[in-house]
Amino acid sequence: MIDLRRLRAFLVTAEEGHVTRAAERLGMQQPPLTRLLRGLEEELGTQLLHRLPRGVAPTDAGRVLMEEARAVLARATTLEETVRRAARGEAGRLAIGFTSSAALHPFVPGVLRRFREALPGLRVELDEAGTAELVEAVLLGRLDAAFVRSPVGSVAGLAVERVLEEPMLAALPAGHPLASAEGPPLPLAALAGEAFILYRRRAGPGLYDTILAACREAGFTPAIAQEAPRLPATLSLVAAGLGISLVPESMRRLAIEGVAYRLLEPSPGLAAPIHLVLRRGGLGAAAVRFRTAVRAAATARPAPSGA
């Protein structure tokens, strides 16, 4: 493999056409430069420079090497800077996952968009999946971080940070007696006789358990008619008239025809969080930058109404 010092010495000498001037440009003495040039010719097994009475000139092989040397040295310079930028978290790859319902909250696409705009040299790859799949992917290193709804219990090797929480709404079939958007916030107890459609527990135990606990606090145990594999799918079942559901406020952005929403009276613990899941320790520079950006964006968010 050609030594880059020899390659640079040759290129400068060929460009200057004079060994003494090349040595001055390189900031070195002439004898070491001459040794570098001879060593390169010996390594390649061919003469690269014609020695003239008043300087040097590249041979045919030397002219070819000049073009290649410019490209190689330019690439080496770029490579050095790319590596430094990667060490600062400004280049490379960052893989971020999210659940479908987390992505519906404007915070998540907003922070991703601003992060990508701030670091255009960093390739950000996105993946949508359920909470369990995302947690496993972070643990195995396939993802650097993930936004999830469900709280993740104590898992060795994982750090879980609460980013925000938002109110829950009642999602009702259009035409339901309680579906009037003009009414005051609905007491949770008013839903005691309804068939509930919930996000499947094994996919999102946090929200599932939160809803059940809030209903019990309101004095009833909900009758669960259906479980959906994803939070957005619950709204399709509500629109079909199969029951009602409790969903994060941001899900009304889906604007599914046949679904009406009602605000709920405050109920202990009834809120929909978004968490950021990362590996504990050993984070790359880009992941550290992303965590910092998420924390800053969460801190800058206005307080929820009524807070």
Written account of the structure:
It comes from Muricoccus nepalensis. Residues 2-59 form the HTH lysR-type domain. Pfam families: HTH_1, LysR_substrate. Belongs to the LysR transcriptional regulatory family. The chain is α/β, with parallel strands linked by helices and 307 residues long. The chain folds into three domains: 4-87, Winged helix-like DNA-binding domain superfamily/Winged helix DNA-binding domain (Arc Repressor Mutant, subunit A); 92-162 and 273-300, D-Maltodextrin-Binding Protein, domain 2 (3-Layer(aba) Sandwich); 166-271, D-Maltodextrin-Binding Protein, domain 2, CATH 3.40.190.10. It has helices at 4-16, 19-26, 30-44, 60-87, 100-104, 107-118, 131-140, 205-217, 231-239, 285-300, and strands at residues 49-52, 55-58, 92-98, 122-128, 145-148, 158-173, 195-199, 223-228, 245-248, 259-263, 271-279. Strands 3, 4, 5, 6, 9, 10 and 11 form a seven-stranded mixed β-sheet that branches. Helix 1 packs across helix 2, helix 1 packs across helix 3 and helix 1 crosses helix 4 (60-87).
